[in-house]
Amino acid sequence: MKYRTVSIPKGLTDEVKMLIEELRFWPSISSFVREATLEKLKVERKNLLKLSEAKKNSIQSGEPTTEEEKATTEGTVPCQ
Prior knowledge:
This protein is mainly alpha-helical. Helix content is 69%, strand content 0%.
């Protein structure tokens, strides 16, 4: 497995470090960030799947799927 280095604000790492020291659940900031990232990816993948399904259902029903398409069908101009 290959790893990448990322930068996050010091204030955020300080908060994570305090949490780690208090709870003693994660062995390092890296392990906390890795777990948090995996959890966030899971949530966002689920959101993407819901959006994809909604779009698919909308297309099948003939309803507009984007704000621009909705505005076009309503005769209004979308905000930029």
